[in-house]
Amino acid sequence: MDFAKLCVDLLSKLIDEVQPSVILGGIADIKRKGKKKSIKYKKDSHKDAILGLSWNKEYRNILARASADHTVKVWDVTTEACNLTMIDYTDKVQAIAWNPFAPQILLSGSFDPVCLKDGRKPSHNGFKFSVGADVESLAWDPHSEHSFVVSARIMFVINSICVEALFALVCYRII
């Protein structure tokens, strides 16, 4: 027996197969009728790819998920329940981040505006900022609870109190 095979055999005996401890949503059933298939999803599941995740640092059981199905869902991981579904978007939601200073404030970026929403008031539409491009990434300013950066074709630094861009950076040259 060569050394590599011995190592693989030993590791397979020592390490258990990795299994998820929690599954949030997902497919409940798939039915096929000829060439067509119908998919039945579990309650509160996303219907398309999950493009972004953000774990709340203050409330450690809360996870926000951004999806290509035009929604953001906030899950309680311990109870495996969806607490909030945000349907404020007209296109895919790609980026998401909790405010590190105010853990109930959620920032999300879609292929349309950036949305700032308070999880304590789910019926409120939140505040929307148009960046005129597809949002690729976003992040809160670690030094200010009111500022965040949004990366699109142009990078914007936005202040959420005065609801305007503090400045914008063109990060590449268009030829």
From TrEMBL:
Xref: PROSITE patterns: WD_REPEATS_2, WD_REPEATS_REGION
Pfam entry (one): WD40
Keyword terms, alphabetized: WD repeat
GO terms (BP aspect): rRNA processing
Record-linked SUPFAM superfamilies: WD40 repeat-like
InterPro entries xrefs: PWP1 (IPR044285), WD40/YVTN_repeat-like_dom_sf (IPR015943), WD40_repeat_dom_sf (IPR036322), WD40_rpt (IPR001680)
Per-repeat ranges for WD: 43-85
This protein's name: WD-repeat protein
